Amino acid sequence: MKKIISFALIVAVALSFSACTGSERLKNMTIVQGLALDVEKGRVVATLQYLDLNKSQGKNDGVCGNITSDVSAKGGSINSAVKSAGRKLPDALFFGQNKLIIISADFEKQYGDELRDYLVKNKESRPDVIILETKRNAADILKNAQKDTLVPADSVCKQLEKLHRDVTVSEFLAGDAPPFYEKL
Prior knowledge:
184 residues
């Protein structure tokens, strides 16, 4: 009898340590497609472009037009600004599909070291994301460039790749290339 109880206890403990905890279903998450980072009055402004599939509902001919929405928030750091923007949304953020990070030149000047630190240490940072620097407001490019396409951030990335102007986070961090500088 002791052997059976001991075996059952061992199995129960082993199952409790091997179970997936804290996992989220993708359908219950906000899928981020692009991130823009600006500076306003010395604070970081993070703008997230995310898939908003509610925009495509009710259309008879399938999905057409822009299926993204944007949300912005300020914070004292990149992390706090991104978290503040995420709190405005009903679901947890998922950066696994993020395609693009746009930074303003002012942001790079004031927060360049923090950006590199964020890209290295953040668990959601990926080396294949394209990074773009601009003289203008980064959020304006994220919101307005290619706004009639399905996913604007993805369209911007495809254009950069086609023009061979795509610089990935990996290349940026390694010092192999600065982010492509959009001069408009």
